[in-house]
Amino acid sequence: MTDTYKNYIDGEWVTARSGETFESVEPADTDRVLGQFQRSTEEDAQRAIEAANEAQEQWQSLSRIDRAAYIEEVFKILEQRTDELGELVSRECGKELSEGKADVVEAIHMLQYAFGNARQPTGEVVESEIPAKDSYVHRQPAGVVASITPWNFPIAIPIWLIAIPLIEGNTVVWKPAEQTPKCAVKLMEVFDEAGIPDGVINMITGYGEDSGAPLVSSNDVDSVLFTGSAKVGQMIQKDVAVQGDKQCACEMGGKNAIIVTEDADMDIAVHSAIMSAYKTTGQRCVSAERVLVHEDVIDEFQQRFVSAAEKINYGHPVEDDVFMGPLVDDAQVEKTKEWNQRVRDLDAAEVLVDRETDIGEEHADGRFVGPFAYRIEYDDDIDVLHEEVFGPHVAIMPYSDLDEAIEIHNSVEYGLAMAICTEDYRKARRARQDCEVGLGYVNLPSIGAEVHLPFGGVKKSGSGIASGKDIIRAVTHRKAWTVNNEKDIEMAQGLSADIFRGSDE
Ligand code: ADP
Q1: Which listed residue, 83, 108, 481, 503, has the most CB atoms within 10 A of its CB?
Q2: Domain containing 154 — which CATH number?
Q3: Cα 249 to chain centroid, rounded
Q4: Ligand 1 lined by 328 (C-beta under 6 Å)
């Protein structure tokens, strides 16, 4: 028998009204069950929204600095539980141990940033045309925020989408990913222990359509923060746009690329490409599935990339010396294998690395798919060169000059992250100017965000504000406030303020 875990609503651990639960297993060994979790529906979402609404006024009445003190408590407790939660992240979402721990450390950094930021000046003082007037911009909380998060950073992304909204005076209903509910419950334990007032943070586990969609459509939710697939993010953006009175910030996927120039340092280029393609088994929104290599150096690059990819060790994420773990769920396994097969079937593609099933019998119960790489000439009509696979799957493509590389780079609908490996600062600068992305790296992998840097994309990758300090824009509204310090009323733009103009007065 495994344990059954509950939702966290209004400071209480409660079961879902449906009475139904679902299971979470280790993707590296699906026989190992991590627990049973509440299968929440609209009723539970409603209950959580009500609790958040009731708590909001009181929470907003605290000073920003007092609210931040609660977040500092969360930080202290999480810091003590880094190793325990890091291992849970590895087990439940399949990232190797250093990555599991880094996920928790990233959350800790975000908490630190959020509560430190509370003492920074906020708002803006704006000069008025009229010397007697003082104008300034004041921010107020949106109200109730729904945070809907993915499984691949099950501690870090939730903290990105919870800590700053809370400090700004919002209350939150959090819907974590169905693949990582145990991480969510354990993170809620930390908030509970920190003594956050009842109803300020609420969490319901369950599937997206059952328990995420009702948060998006509720009239009592004021802002929606989402990180996940482009398909769901676009649906949320449309839904919110029709409602008209709700704010929304969505971060979605990418079809990210690395550009390797003819003068690149090959050690850096190969190292960066392997990290970008295969770290987290290719399941980061910033993972690179395209490597564009100058035609003069592609043969050398290819030979060295293949030799490294053949050596990558993949296995159970908590084993020692593992670079790559499994894929998170069966749907992801099926999708990655399907795209690999489509590439094998393409006349235009030369498969260079195919370790899809290259793993020992002892891992037969895991969702393992090994590294896959192929060489192909860019062709606009080949769908796999545009679609996000979200697995350890990468295309290596030749180009003849930087104009062409940038054109191929920008040919996709996404625009999240890119890297350029070059020894020529002019080429790096050109990439910065002309590549359509929100994040760029020079002589580095396309992965590796830090919490105090903006994170977000352009085009179909998102609105670019669901992170860091920018998230404040999505969870507050501004008031432009003007004060007259004289007895007379004087208007801007020379507008007359004489209400008795033309009369006998
Ligand atoms: P991924 O491909 O990373 O699993 P998804 O976009 O499917 O990304 O899921 C990200 C989050 O969005 C999860 O918490 C999921 O349950 C939630 N979700 C999925 N579908 C919907 C929906 N229709 N409305 C609201 N949330 C959803």
Answers
A1: 108
A2: 3.40.605.10
A3: 11
A4: no
